[in-house]
Write a structure and sequence with these properties.
The complex is a heterotetramer of chains A (about 350), B (about 350), C (about 150) and D (about 280). Chain B is of the alpha/beta class and about 350 residues long. Chain B contains ten helices and eleven strands. Chain B has one domain. In chain B, helix 2 links the parallel strand 6 and strand 7. Chain C has one domain: Lumazine/riboflavin synthase (Rossmann fold), CATH 3.40.50.960. Chain C is about 35% helix and about 20% strand. Chain C has a four-stranded parallel sheet, sandwiched between helices. Chain C has a two-stranded antiparallel sheet with strand order 1-2. In chain C, helix 1 crosses helix 4. Chain D is α/β, with parallel strands linked by helices and about 280 residues long. Chain D folds into two domains: about 90 residues, Translation factors (Elongation Factor Tu (Ef-tu), domain 3); about 130 residues, Rossmann fold, CATH 3.40.50. In chain D, strand 7, helix 4 and strand 8 form a beta-alpha-beta unit. The longest helix of chain D is centred in the C-terminal third of the chain and has 13 residues. The chains are: A alpha+beta (about 350), B alpha/beta (about 350), C alpha/beta (about 150), D alpha/beta (about 280). Chains in contact: A-B, A-C, A-D, B-C, B-D. Chains A and B meet through strand 3, helix 9, strand 11, strand 12 and helix 11 of A and strand 2 and helix 7 of B.
Chain lengths: ~350, ~350, ~150, ~280
């Protein structure tokens, strides 16, 4: 299908057309931060943004999610499964790094003998409209983790911001069908396509943070007990901002929430974090990861060593959120530098 | 005031003092701040050799409360043979207060640390500036005269420091660590104990005058974005409980979800626990990834404690904190009485 | 919490009645409540009493948990200052109550939701009067809905 | 595939207190829907996420053997919120189960081998399942000699007493019971499990040791086995870890890149030695 063009001022038209069919999630400003929220009013849409504070992961894997609801009738329990998983979802304006995170999440939740029904159903019913990233931040490093500021993977429709207009491309079948419905879109001119390519090139060049993650994985695998971890975890205060804002973190806790006066309740899952001491604390009092050093290590190992060995890809999309969020500036780039230093030192030893 | 030059002087002096302390073995390690990798941040650093003192910096972005690293002590502060090491703590007023208050709660021993006092003129409210810049990337921050200059790819903006200072710093009277006679600490630069700011809590008066409904709306709106990551708790030097009340599960006191009632209750009880203990460092708000402003609540606590019990936290390690103390004649105007 | 609706005897109209949880100290106020009962002094049936060893035992958690659980009001009563069975439990508690009361108000909870009082074992009359007063205050505020979760 | 987070409903059929202190009970659960029982196909050593709906969920090893028809059993010690709620249960209460989860004891690989079962304390539940399975007349011929070494703090902590008595009467299984310190009327062995292992000195020839118990017991027993020339591959452990989902999604039970819930809970000592010491 050919590329189309879509004027930014027509966003209201788009919304109007899609809202009856989809739950329309778009970037919107909440208390000064960009967040992906369900909207119905065009005024809420925020088009000028770098990226959202909390990743759009929370649309498909919200902080608090109901697993099922239950009712007590005497000693009997009646379990009611969720019915809203079939709702169609549209997420507008997802940056390529976050779109790629959907692929990671999908692969993770679908892996193994048990599939996470809740996430996968939602993902299946979601249409992702990606948006090219014209100005990556200094903290972005998507190109090092196999991404690109204009990567189209796991989006359905991809937009490139050309100023007043978006260049629209259908990527998947779902996207093509969506565009067919929007018959009023004009065809793109050759110049527009060229411009989009130019922007992609510029964006890629503007990314200065680059790592060789194959090497990182190798070094991590060999240095689980290295003293560098003490150094890395030293200034960490264990606040877990990094994991809560991470588009690929999936850990959760399961709780029962009761409405005791009405003999009903719901089993929910909420985000949990490996940076919390309670995460692994067992009832007996034993804690396999009792200190910050183990918890810091677990996060890094999980993304850059366990993920590659279990799912054959890095557990990171290079969005840089953990870098900007860390209040004590104990950020990923520094950590990776420190890890790579081990290799350098070892290399020196060998050559000497 | 010329912040930059003043800071540069302090920085040079600080390095000298630190070097001297390490050289004379008066301290084993020093915890201070170093240059951050992002324009609006600084990074805590622990140094134990004289060569590293040049990494120490001092500027208006040093907002982490270093007392956090002493309760409990990070591994580098404990030697496997010598036990607790003597730690030099680069302390602005609120860090010093935190240390002293923690000493009054018997959490640290003042003779095991050395307070290296630094006169502080407030830290930049980075969240407010970031929010005002909005969706643009900040690449450079500098301070010139009374202005914070923020530069990005295609913009440059000045923020008057007086206004874009952290709210708690605006009313802070204790800008240098209070010197406790018992432990002869030292101060980089001159050390007067109080500056003569008159604090009549007028900054929260407007909020206090609102109706309960309006207050509820404002507070819940502020808290609505909370993700329950507990960064506020982890950054707070006074939050050292092994098991926080929100994490207790026998019984489960309060919900752990991000539903409004649960979030509200978490912040309410955390505030309750801060009464008479908050040292007004503002770390809780400054570390919040969502930019929630908790300063108003902290100010209210300060006010209650000041007015009711005439207490300011972190001034004297020998005075009992107000919540473990009592007086027969404490005010009780809030009690129900017969008409 | 299920709302308490009481049918009025006079005209059959249904009226909302507040539910108030009362934490009473074992030594003074609980005995005071007892005395009020024994002396047949009427007080509103809206309160549900929880006996605690001392007002110093009352944690802010109890009070806030009661509110989140849907009680319309919380009433706390202990020995008069100076009369505490454990000498100073109520004095420590008083500081805690003072802070909590002001904080609740600052957070936008109506100040009348949580009430504190002193009543000795000999003050059955005072107990009844103050319970009546607290009930009136809470009744005026209406049901406590701020902590309700969406279902 | 059905939603793996939805529990199967069962009812408490019976509850038996197992020890003198009365903080360990064995719960017998009967499925509400018999079809679901038929589909609940498990082997010894697997676990299930069991929940009192409204109180929460916890992972517990299945104590019954698939050879015991009709119901499944769990032995639960009163520890945290959920397990305490279990101890407050009444007959007929509804219990949710999700499972069977994890990899059980490798029953196929054990065929033709001698089995040495070493258990300590209340971790004996999945071992009970294993022994019952092996002793069943359908399976007994598939396995070699069976030696059971079971230690406890005192005689009051001994689980499954009636079944142990039955086993002691049989001649195709060797049962060695031990308690930590001497007691009147205790006629069996006294001493820690490791010491008894040394004394019994099971042969490593064509054998597999199955070790389950408190961490210190596991460690010392393994050392003793090592001294008796057992190879790491011959020693099997069942690990415990905090879990929420039991199906490899909630993240917390990882040891290195392995999840205890889906890659375990049974690991050989050889495997454990290649994994980080985070368990």
């Amino acid at each position: 299908m050919d590329e189309k063009i879509f004027a930014k001022k027509d966003i209201g038209k788009l919304l109007e057309e899609l809202v009856p069919e989809y739950k329309f999630y778009s970037p919107t400003k909440i208390k000064g931060n960009i967040a992906f929220k369900e909207i119905t009013d065009v005024k809420e849409i925020e088009l000028d943004y770098l990226n959202s504070k909390v990743p759009p992961k929370d649309v498909l894997f919200p902080q608090k999610e109901i697993i099922f609801e239950y009712r007590y009738e005497g000693k009997d329990v009646i379990i009611e499964e969720r019915k809203d998983l079939e709702d169609k979802i549209l997420i507008f304006g997802v940056r390529p790094c976050d779109a790629y995170s959907f692929k990671l999440l999908e692969d993770f939740f679908a892996s193994g003998d048990f599939q996470d029904d809740i996430f996968l159903k939602k993902r299946e019913n979601a249409t992702i409209i990606g948006l090219g990233c014209n100005s990556p931040r200094q903290s972005c490093f998507c190109t090092s983790v196999g991404g690109h500021p204009f990567q189209k993977e796991s989006t359905d429709v991809f937009l490139s911001d050309l100023g007043d207009t978006y260049l629209v491309e259908a990527i998947s079948e779902k996207g093509e069908n969506l565009l067919k419905k929007l018959s009023w879109l004009a065809d793109a001119k050759k110049a527009d396509i060229e411009k989009s390519k130019e922007l992609a090139k510029q964006a890629e060049e503007s990314i200065t943070t680059k790592f060789d993650f194959d090497l990182v994985t190798k070094v991590l695998d060999e240095n689980f007990e290295h003293p560098v971890w003490q150094e890395i975890s030293e200034s960490c205060i264990g606040c877990s901002s990094c994991t809560f804002l991470c588009p690929t973190c999936t850990c959760f806790d399961v709780l029962d929430e009761n409405d005791e006066y009405n003999n009903r309740g719901r089993r929910i899952r909420i985000w949990d974090t490996c940076q919390s001491c309670l995460y692994t604390l067992e009832t007996s009092g034993h804690n396999p990861r009792p200190a910050k050093i183990q918890r810091c290590r677990n996060r890094i190992m999980h993304k850059f060593s366990y993920y590659p060995s279990n799912y054959d890809c890095l557990g990171c999309v290079g969005c840089g959120r953990c870098i900007t969020a860390c209040p004590v500036n104990n950020e990923l780039r520094l950590i990776i530098d420190k890890i790579l230093e081990i290799q350098e030192k070892n290399g020196e030893k060998v050559s000497a | 005031m010329g912040l930059e030059t003043e800071n540069k002087d302090i920085e040079t002096n600080l390095r000298e003092v630190a070097k001297g302390l390490l050289k004379d073995k008066k301290v084993d390690v020093i915890i201070g701040y170093m240059e951050g990798t992002l324009p609006m941040l600084s990074q805590p650093i622990i140094i134990d050799s004289e060569e590293d003192v040049d990494k120490l910096i001092w500027n208006n972005l040093c907002y982490v409360n270093l007392a956090k690293y002493l309760v409990p002590r990070v591994p580098k502060f404990v030697d496997s043979e010598k036990g607790n090491l003597k730690v030099g703590v680069v302390s602005k007023g609120c860090v010093g207060r935190a240390l002293i208050h923690l000493a009054s709660e018997n959490k640290i021993k003042l003779d095991e640390i050395k307070i290296i006092g630094i006169p502080c003129n407030g830290v930049v409210n980075r969240q407010r500036i970031e929010m005002e810049i909005g969706e643009k990337e900040i690449l450079e921050v500098s301070v010139s005269g009374n202005n914070v200059i923020v530069k990005g790819k295609d913009f440059e903006k000045e923020f008057p420091f007086d206004e874009y200072m952290n709210d708690l710093c605006k009313t802070c009277k204790i800008r240098k660590p209070p010197l406790v006679s018992k432990s002869p600490d030292l101060c980089v630069g001159e050390c007067e104990e109080y500056s003569n700011i008159v604090d009549d809590f007028s900054d929260i008066a407007e909020f206090e005058a609102l109706t309960p409904e309006e207050k509820w709306n404002q507070i819940t709106e502020e808290l609505s974005v909370c993700t329950r990551c507990y960064a506020c708790r982890e950054a707070c030097p006074m939050c050292y409980c092994n098991l926080c009340f929100v994490d207790q599960n026998k019984p489960v006191w309060f919900g752990k979800t991000t539903d409004l009632p649960d979030v509200f209750v978490y912040h309410l009880i955390r505030a309750m626990h801060m009464a008479g203990r908050c040292v007004a460092c503002g770390a809780c708000s400054l570390v919040c990834p969502m930019g929630i402003d908790l300063n108003k609540i902290n100010r209210k606590l300060e006010k209650i404690v000041k007015e009711r019990f005439d207490f300011t936290s972190g001034l004297d390690p020998d005075v009992l904190p107000p919540m473990v103390d009592f007086k027969m004649e404490d005010a009780q105007e809030f009690m129900l009485e017969e008409d | 919490m299920t709302e308490e609706v009481v049918e009025s005897k006079q005209d059959g109209s249904k009226k909302w009645e507040p539910k108030i949880i009362a934490f009473l100290c074992n030594w003074c106020s609980y005995a005071g409540a007892d005395l009020a009962g024994v002396s047949r002094i009427q007080y509103p049936p809206n309160i549900r009493i929880v006996r605690v060893p001392c007002s110093g035992r009352i944690n802010a958690y109890f009070i806030i948990k009661s509110l989140t659980d849907g009680w319309d009001g919380v009433l706390i009563s202990g020995c008069h200052p100076g009369d505490c069975h454990y000498i100073s439990g109520n004095l420590v508690a008083r500081r805690r109550f003072a802070i909590l009361k002001e904080l609740l108000e600052f957070f936008g909870i109506e100040p009348g939701r949580v009430n504190f009082m002193w009543a000795s074992a000999a003050e059955g009359e005072r107990f009844a009067v103050l319970v009546r007063k607290a009930t009136e205050i809470v009744k005026k505020l209406g049901p406590n809905t701020k902590f309700e979760k969406k279902w | 595939m059905p939603n793996p987070y939805i529990p199967i409903l069962t009812k408490v059929k019976s509850m038996v207190s197992e020890n003198n202190v009365n903080d360990i009970k064995t719960f017998e659960l009967e499925f509400v829907n018999n079809e679901e029982y038929k589909a609940f196909d498990y082997i010894p050593g697997q676990f299930a996420e069991i929940s009192i709906i409204g109180k929460g969920e916890c992972p517990i090893g299945i104590a019954s053997s698939p050879t015991e028809e009709g119901t499944i059993k769990f032995t639960i010690k009163k520890m945290g919120t959920v397990t305490s709620a279990f101890h407050n249960c009444e007959i007929g209460d509804t219990i949710g189960i999700r499972g069977p989860l994890g990899n059980g004891w490798p029953m196929e690989e054990l065929k033709g081998k001698n089995i040495v079962v070493i258990g300590g304390g209340f971790a004996f539940s999945t071992l009970r399942s294993l022994i019952l399975y092996v002793l069943d007349e359908k399976h007994r011929k598939d396995y070699g000699d069976i030696t059971v070494i079971y230690g406890n703090r005192n005689s009051g902590e001994l689980l499954y007493r009636d079944i142990l008595e039955e086993w002691e009467k049989r001649d195709d299984i060797k049962i060695v019971l031990t308690i930590d310190s001497e007691e009147e009327s205790w006629t069996r062995k006294v001493g820690y499990v490791a010491a008894v292992v040394k004394e019994v000195a099971p042969s490593s020839e064509n054998a597999v040791a199955v070790v389950c118990g408190p961490p210190i017991m596991i460690k010392t027993a393994q050392n003793e086995l090592g001294k008796l020339n057992w190879k790491d591959e011959q020693i099997l452990n069942s690990l415990e870890m905090r879990m929420k989902c039991g199906i490899g999604k909630c993240g917390r039970c990882n040891i290195g890149d392995k999840f205890v819930c889906i890659d375990g809970p049974v690991f050989s000592l050889a495997e454990l030695k290649t994994m980080p010491k985070e368990h």
